[in-house]
């Protein structure tokens, strides 16, 4: 009789499971955040969005690397201050160590370094971005990492050219092929940027001063996993910043927008859109164009070519601009779940 009750009980359990939909929590997106974080404030807004998504359990920030140079050597400090504000002071940070980039004076990095808690050394004493990249990739599960490139592609160029080292026995292309799910790139105009009257490439694709567009061309031509492009025109006019006005003055992102002059007027959200597309299903917000590939000239000018296909795609607008402004603005202004202040 007891055995019969056990069988009936088991059947009821299985029936209940069959009647109820199983909720499977998706793995958080593993993100390496590659940023210039000096010449514009949207990179800071993007790191706020990424930390918010990490607070929601949707993202895991593996590392942050800088792809620009500025004379105060305070880019790493700015990145560290933002992560510390969100309760993540230990995220590895690497900086670009090369004379190929001429320093550009920042509106805010020194001020953030001096006014907010952080754990970063001066940029020229911080770990090399390349070393941080290779260490983070080597430790990640195969095929799990999304890289978000918000500035120049100098670090990605160095990664593709890298040799086996203590972090991994794999050369750069093989390490990327094994570990990276996709690369999301802010840059270019889509489907075309060499239109009449435009003689220069989009800023990021034009490359760092001293390097030109060669880094961009090399990475786009040789990257071994899918690339999703978020072009200049996609986020032009999606202005965010005013949502930060009422937040705590302990928030370094609020201060960065204030120093940049965009707290009240707002700034186009080029970098924030790319982070959102990297973490969440991008088709929730944009159309995905997959009918070709991105060709880049030596000066960084690009155009979308129909053939052949190389795993390239780009974002096109779908959600109305005011709605995107609210989505991104609300994420930037959301208080940290575990504040470091």
Summary keywords:
341 residues, alpha/beta, two-stranded antiparallel ribbon, 13 helices, globular, disordered N terminus
Structure description:
The chain is of the alpha/beta class and 341 residues long. The protein has one domain (27-333): Ribonucleoside hydrolase-like (Inosine-uridine Nucleoside N-ribohydrolase, Chain A). The protein has 13 helices and twelve strands. The protein has helices at 2-19, 42-55, 75-85, 109-115, 129-139, 154-161, 172-179, 203-206, 214-222, 232-235, 252-260, 270-279, 321-333; strands spanning 29-35, 59-66, 93-94, 145-149, 180-186, 227-230, 239-240, 267-268, 286-289, 293-296, 302-305, 312-317. Strands 3-2-1-4-5-6-12-9 form an eight-stranded mixed sheet, sandwiched between helices. A hairpin with a 5-residue loop joins strand 10 and strand 11. Helix 2 (42-55) runs parallel beside helix 3 (75-85), helix 2 (42-55) packs across helix 13 (321-333) and helix 5 (129-139) packs across helix 6.
The CATH superfamily bears the name Ribonucleoside hydrolase-like
The DSSP helix count reads 13
Kindly provide the radius of gyration, computed on alpha-carbon positions and rounded to a whole number of angstroms: 22 Å
Envelope shape:
globular
Order of strands, widest sheet: 3-2-1-4-5-6-12-9
**How many strand segments?**
12
CATH architecture: Alpha-Beta Complex
**Ends: how far apart?**
62 Å
- Number of discrete domains: 1
Poorly predicted regions are 1-24
Q: Class, according to the CATH hierarchy?
A: Alpha Beta
Bin the strand percentage.
Answer: 15-25%
> Looking at CATH, which topology would you report?
Inosine-uridine Nucleoside N-ribohydrolase, Chain A
Percentage of residues in helical conformation: 25-40%
Largest sheet: 8 strands, mixed
Name the quaternary structure: single chain
Question: Which structural class do you get from the secondary structure elements?
Answer: alpha/beta
The helix/strand order is HEHEHEHHEHHEHHEHEHEHEEEEH
Give the overall average pLDDT: 90
